[in-house]
């Protein structure tokens, strides 16, 4: 079986315990590289890969090549309108930083509506260090603003956006890369 992993994928699976997760919804997951690695690490779990229709139209072959077609449903749509129901964990990798706070909150509210109370939300994003400490994140923040109108955020800024959408941020998990995993839970 052929496995396709990006260079930093394995740490994303190792920094969070997915063993209690039954169904993962990968929102904006493209061809499902991260979802595939999660499902390979947790053979009892199932997944939903959700992205725009033109992206999902090309994802089937990639998912099939990984041997998880029977455990991975492909769904298409616009995450600003709604996200699929039925998952106990929502995953957004490099998605929130593409948008201003208003659009990010709208997307996160859609996640909140489809996730059961107590469900988990994971964001994989760059977190700007506090107190204006030197970091590559500042340059990336400026780049996001200029290129797409989005931005990287501080822990406090992610906390605010998550709270505004009905989530409680539990922790920020640093990694051996520029990215962190931000864990939140759906408030009632």
Can you describe what's shown?
This protein is α/β, with parallel strands linked by helices. The chain has a single domain (9-186), classed as Rossmann fold, CATH 3.40.50. 33% of the residues lie in helices and 26% in strands. It contains 7 helices and 8 strands, in the order αβαβααββαβαβαββ. The chain has helices at residues 9-14, 33-41, 53-56, 60-65, 101-114, 136-148, 155-164, and strands spanning 23-27, 46-51, 72-76, 89-93, 120-128, 153-154, 167-174, 179-186. Strands 1, 2, 3, 4, 5, 6, 7 and 8 form an 8-stranded mixed β-sheet that branches. The longest helix is centred in the middle third of the chain and has 14 residues, at 101-114. The N and C termini lie far apart (42 Å). The model is unreliable at 1-9 and 141-146 (pLDDT under 50).
Structural class by sheet pairing and helices? alpha/beta
The dominant shape is: globular
Distance between the termini: 42 Å
Individual helix count: 7
Average pLDDT, rounded to a whole number, is: 84
């Amino acid at each position: 079986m052929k496995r396709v992993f990006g260079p930093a994928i394995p740490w994303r699976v190792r920094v969070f315990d997915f063993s209690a997760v039954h169904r993962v919804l990968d929102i904006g997951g493209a061809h499902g590289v991260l979802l595939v690695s999660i499902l390979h690490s947790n053979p009892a779990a199932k997944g939903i890969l959700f992205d725009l229709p033109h992206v999902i139209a090309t994802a089937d072959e990639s998912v099939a090549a990984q041997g998880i077609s029977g455990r991975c449903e492909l769904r298409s749509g616009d995450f600003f309108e709604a996200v699929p129901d039925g998952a106990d964990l929502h995953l957004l990798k490099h998605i929130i930083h593409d948008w201003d706070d208003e659009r990010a909150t709208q997307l996160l509210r859609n996640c909140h509506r489809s996730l059961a109370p107590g469900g988990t939300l994971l964001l994989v994003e760059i977190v700007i260090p506090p107190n204006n400490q030197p970091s590559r994140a500042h340059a990336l923040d400026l780049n996001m603003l200029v290129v797409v109108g989005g931005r990287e955020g501080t822990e406090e800024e992610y906390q605010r956006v998550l709270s505004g959408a009905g989530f409680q941020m539990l922790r920020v998990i640093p990694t051996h890369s520029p990215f962190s995993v931000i864990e939140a839970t759906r408030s009632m």
